[in-house]
Design a protein that fits this description.
Blueprint: E1 28-30, E2 35-37, E3 46-49, E4 65-70, E5 76-81, E6 101-107, E7 114-121, E8 128-130, E9 136-140, E10 146-152, E11 158-160, E12 166-167, E13 191-196, E14 202-207, E15 212-220, E16 223-231, H1 234-237, E17 250-256, E18 260-265, E19 270-275, E20 283-289, E21 293-299, E22 305-311, E23 315-320, E24 325-331, E25 351-356, E26 362-367, E27 372-377, E28 399-405, E29 408-415, E30 421-428, H2 447-452, H3 456-459, E31 463-468, H4 472-485, H5 494-506, E32 509-515, H6 520-524, H7 545-553, E33 555-557, E34 560-561, H8 567-576, H9 581-591, E35 603-604, E36 607-608, H10 614-620, H11 652-658, E37 663-666, H12 689-692, H13 721-735, E38 740-744, H14 763-782, E39 790-796, E40 813-816, E41 824-826, E42 830-831, H15 832-843, H16 850-853, H17 877-880, H18 904-910, H19 927-936, H20 954-963
Parallel strand pairs: 32-38, 32-39, 33-41, 34-42, 37-38
Antiparallel strand pairs: 1-2, 3-31, 4-5, 5-6, 6-7, 8-9, 9-10, 10-11, 10-12, 13-14, 14-15, 15-16, 17-18, 18-19, 19-20, 21-22, 22-23, 23-24, 25-26, 26-27, 27-28, 29-30, 30-31, 35-36, 39-40
Helix pairs in contact: 5-15, 7-14, 13-14
Length: 984
């Protein structure tokens, strides 16, 4: 790239066929996002999996590549893994040797990387750096609260030093059960970014969950000790600033020279500048405010300029290190003119990494969500640091001139020492079929599943892409490829646009139901139509008659995919069409039990930041830390910005409120810390909180608080969804229907069998309860004055809790109401983003970000001629046999009483000790194996995923399925002792 001429781009008009790519890693469709990836598009590109070469598992490939770094001599590339990476030897057991994070070592002396080593690290979180000598490198120890030291031996191989790891000391200060060593509620430390001074004498580590940095020095050659720790929070720096936000979630760090550290504070959108001249007494000298959430950083070669990758704003911040001021922000989403006028200002790229060429003239930024590297020209040709060089005396002229396609979710880019080669690491690969029904928290459900490690977070694999730095001529075509991959030029057909405009004029109310964790095959695999595999069906038509009726009476969406991996990213995708980089980065680590917290439903580090004052937090939850400097203010680190940059206001309800619409919230973004706790301070589990004016909902979103029904209980597996329906119905009858109703019905998650109320205390009963509650909502609207202008949308936040023969992300979704096709099979590829955009388009709100704006709305579901509709909810015979739920007798008239496969006592016994208090905190080591065994008996899993189209073979498939159905007409016989269901 030696020309400085500006390049004009012509938008590539392409129709992307939704299907599997013909070349593995070369061209693949990502069904759950609707994008395509083409990592082999750059000339002479290579894309390789990260295989550590395990002797007992030679096919194993690690997932979630985090960052990369080139050695000072330019001959070695290190790639750090930081994610799930739990390997099963059986249904119940992790392989302790294989279940680690990794450092992959590559020889790049001839540019193309050649793997020479894979080094095991127990835990880590994005921190790796070479010593200036190149003979040592350092890795942050993540939840182990430590620093690892690796030294190159005489043979050229790397090995951990005898003095490693070095403890940072936070774990030693833990006071269980509420204080586990981190700043927050029941959170551990997390050593993250790491940097070294130019003289090699000081290491700086960011303590991500302690809001501080540790400075390390050598007590003797090769022996490092913690010299000091600096709390970055204003209130700890000066008591006069108590309760002032600052310095929280410190993530990246770089050291300029030997005396100045720059630390990125994600939550507070600032760079904290620390003088480390005296490592015993580091001093915070200034805070540099940024518009976006700062991620990784890089200095230019002469260290006059610091470049900061910023999520939320899709930009790279430019900081003058002489004045320590922000002097510019470079947009890195796309070159000017590549996006249409309506898209150009939208964000959503998840900009997360940055690197500078050795000559200081080019900057490269990774855009995780758009699967590309942005190329920025910083200066005209000329001597580094001379006139025209950015950061020198020349003018600022940084601009994006092109995009390079990558693998799925690039996290980091490194440049060879001569600038001729680029190395990009990616977090994920498309998953494909998931027959093994492996679940959260690390556990497959059978020995076969254990061998194949088919859980969703195990299926996504990391990759390393390498290629010669593109010249300008190639960059133009690569930019067009990125545009095609991300559907930048997608246009609605006139017919679809007219249909959506018609719906916007005729539909004035939308009910948006979010449920939990089920796949298509698991629920609807036994439908008479559709691409379902009944051998994987666990909760079929006898358990979920309403879901089957919704699919048959309206539309069977048999090609629908949840965009998320699990609930932690599922809720952001479902409520804002955007999982920020901080969510993407934390999810796989948290789900592996490697520290961190579930930060994506309004609480951060288990603290309800929806309340601005300490007094309000303590009133809502007495377990809250009694410290005004623990996450002060109402900033939610995981909250996306609105389309005009409104901080933290990028949720669906924010869009509706900006459009002047009414909103009512039932169960979204609540703090459930006091559920299932002794009373007081716990919140009592009762059927009718409204009757006693008992508040059961403490909102973790300030913008939702005025619109929330405080008598509607959030995620709690102890109470049935039928009670939630009763509260929704009471409020609906009293107050009518808002333009946008947010309704959480979570009981299909299932759990809490030993303490469950109303006799709903087995997996089948939980699912039947969830099914009936959804059916009753639809029936209520069908029989109300709102029937002609209301649509009901239902989605799972993720699909991780089941097996599917098509893809691990394929899930159930339902749409009911006027103008919805009836008796239709719609196999158009849709996903969470499609449903989100459809709701926006019908409500008439603006699009929130690029993800929903580029999605395909679900126009094929609708028919303008189909105005009349009805729906009658039918309880499963399982619920009719249980008198404790108080279902009206007329609803069960004519239905055969059915019974669960096992008693509540059985389920309570086999799940004893498991944590069902929070979604996805269940002990996954045994849970899903227990579910399959308890529900399916000795029936084996399919040994290999079929990926077949089963739409045309329904009769024979269903015949075999029904022959193996459990006998439900008699009660189970393990025990007659009731467990839990003690009534109301």
């Amino acid at each position: 790239m030696k020309s400085s001429h500006k390049t004009k781009y012509v938008l590539l008009l392409a129709v992307l066929v939704f299907g599997w790519g013909s070349l593995c890693y070369g061209q693949q469709v990502i069904p759950n996002t609707g994008q395509q990836i083409t990592p082999l598009a750059p000339n002479n590109a290579a894309f390789v999996p990260l295989n550590p070469g395990l002797g007992d598992n030679p096919e194993y490939v690690a997932g979630q590549a985090a960052t990369s770094v080139v050695s000072p001599d330019g001959k070695t590339l290190l790639v750090l893994i930081s994610g799930y990476n739990l390997v099963k030897t059986s249904a119940d057991v992790n392989n302790p040797t294989d279940s680690t994070q990794w450092v992959f070592v590559y020889d790049i002396s001839q540019y193309r990387p050649v793997q020479t080593q894979a080094i095991s690290v127990p835990n880590t979180y994005y921190g790796i750096v070479f010593d200036p000598s190149g003979t040592t490198f350092y890795v942050s120890g993540g939840v182990n609260d430590s620093v690892h030291i690796f030294v190159r031996g005489a043979s050229g191989k790397w090995a951990e030093s005898a003095t490693s790891p070095v403890a940072l000391g936070h774990l030693a200060k833990a006071v269980p059960p509420l204080n586990l060593g981190g700043v927050g509620l029941e959170v551990k430390p997390q050593a993250a970014g790491i940097a070294i001074s130019a003289d090699g004498a000081k290491l700086v580590v960011t303590n991500y969950y302690n809001d501080s940095i540790s400075v390390l020095t050598q007590s003797s050659p090769g022996t490092w000790v913690v010299a000091s720790e600096l709390d970055l929070r204003p209130g700890k720096e000066n008591p006069a600033n108590s309760g002032v936000p600052g310095g929280e979630y410190p993530f990246g760090v770089v050291v300029q020279g030997s005396n100045t550290a720059y630390v990125s504070s994600i939550r507070d959108r600032e760079i904290d500048v620390v003088d480390i001249t005296n490592p015993l007494v580091p001093t915070l000298t200034t805070r540099i405010s940024l518009p976006g959430e700062p991620n990784k950083m890089a200095l230019n070669p002469i260290q006059s300029t610091l470049y900061v990758a910023q999520d939320e704003t899709d930009s790279v911040g430019v900081i003058n290190t002489t004045s320590n001021t922000l002097v510019g922000n470079i947009p890195v989403g796309a070159p000017h003119g590549l996006l249409s006028r309506g898209l150009a200002n939208l964000k959503g790229n998840d900009t997360n990494g940055v690197a500078v060429s050795p000559d200081g003239r080019w900057l490269y930024a990774t855009n995780g969500a758009m699967n590309d590297v942005a190329v920025v020209q910083l200066a005209e040709p000329g001597p580094v640091g001379g006139p025209g060089s950015f950061g020198g005396p020349g003018p600022f002229n940084g601009q994006v001139i092109g995009l390079i396609p990558t693998g799925w979710y690039p996290n980091s880019v490194s440049v060879s020492n001569d600038g001729k080669y680029l190395y990009v690491v990616s977090d994920k690969t498309p998953t494909g079929p998931n027959p093994g029904y492996c679940h959260v928290g690390n556990t497959p459900t059978s020995v076969a599943c254990g061998a194949s490690n088919q859980y969703d977070l195990q299926l996504i694999k990391a990759g390393l892409q390498s290629f010669p730095t593109p010249m300008l001529g190639e960059l133009a075509s690569l930019t067009q490829q990125v545009a095609a991959n991300n559907n930048f030029s997608r246009q609605l057909s006139d017919e679809d646009a007219d249909k959506l405009e018609f719906l916007q004029r005729h539909i004035h109310h939308i009910i948006y139901i979010i449920k939990e964790n089920r796949t298509y095959d698991q629920i609807l695999g036994d439908l008479a139509e559709g691409n379902g595999d009944p051998s994987l069906t666990e909760f079929g038509s006898d358990v979920t008659p309403n879901f089957h009726n919704l699919a048959s009476q309206f539309v069977d969406l048999d090609n629908f995919y949840d965009t998320s991996e699990v609930s932690m990213d599922g809720w952001p995708w479902s409520t804002s069409a955007h999982a920020l980089d901080v969510v993407e980065r934390q999810t796989s680590v948290e789900y592996a039990g490697r520290g961190l917290s579930y930060d994506s439903e309004g609480t951060n580090r288990n603290v309800n930041v929806g309340y601005p004052t300490l007094a309000a937090r303590l009133a809502a939850n007495p377990y809250s830390p009694d410290d005004p400097d623990v996450l002060p203010g109402t900033t939610n680190t995981a909250a996306p910005d609105g389309p005009e940059g409104e901080q933290g206001a990028g949720f669906l309800w924010d869009a509706a409120l900006r459009a002047g619409l009414t909103v009512r919230n039932y169960g979204f973004f609540l703090d459930q810390a006091l559920y299932n706790q002794p009373v007081p301070p716990g919140i009592p589990e009762i059927e009718n909180p409204f009757a006693t004016k008992t508040v059961v909902a403490y909102v973790a979103s300030p913008s939702l608080r005025p619109y929330t029904d405080v008598y509607f209980r959030g995620f709690d597996m102890t109470i049935p969804d039928y009670w939630r329906f009763e509260e929704w119905q009471r409020d609906f009858n009293a107050n009518g229907l808002a333009n946008l109703t947010l309704l959480r019905l979570p009981h299909d998650h299932t759990g809490n069998y030993s303490i469950a109320l109303a006799g709903i205390n087995t997996p089948e009963l939980d699912e039947a309860d969830n099914d009936y509650a959804v059916g009753l909502v639809v029936q209520t609207i069908a029989n109300s004055p709102y029937a002609n202008d209301t649509l009901i949308f239902s989605i799972e936040d993720d699909a991780q809790d089941g097996g599917d023969h098509v893809d691990a992300h394929r899930s159930i979704a339902f749409i009911a109401g006027p103008y919805v096709k009836q008796g239709a099979l719609v196999s158009t590829p849709y996903n969470t983003l499609s449903m989100f955009r459809t709701i926006e388009d019908i409500l008439g709100t603006e699009h929130q970000n690029l993800n929903d704006a580029l999605a395909m709305p679900m126009a094929d579901v609708f028919d303008r001629r189909q105005r009349e509709w009805s729906f009658n909810a039918t309880p499963s015979g399982l619920l009719c046999a249980d008198a404790l739920l108080d279902i009206p007798p007329a609803a069960c008239s004519g239905l055969a009483f059915l019974y669960p496969t096992h008693t509540a006592a059985y389920w309570a016994n086999v799940t004893k000790g498991m944590d069902f208090s929070v979604e996805d905190h269940v002990d996954g080591r045994r849970f899903n194996h227990i579910l399959w065994q308890g529900l399916k008996g000795s029936q084996p899993y399919p040994e290999t995923p079929s990926g077949l189209d089963l739409r045309a073979n329904r009769k024979e498939l269903l015949k075999r399925y029904r022959a193996n159905l459990p006998l439900r007409t008699v009660p189970p016989v393990e025990s007659s002792m009731p467990v839990g269901g003690g009534g109301k």
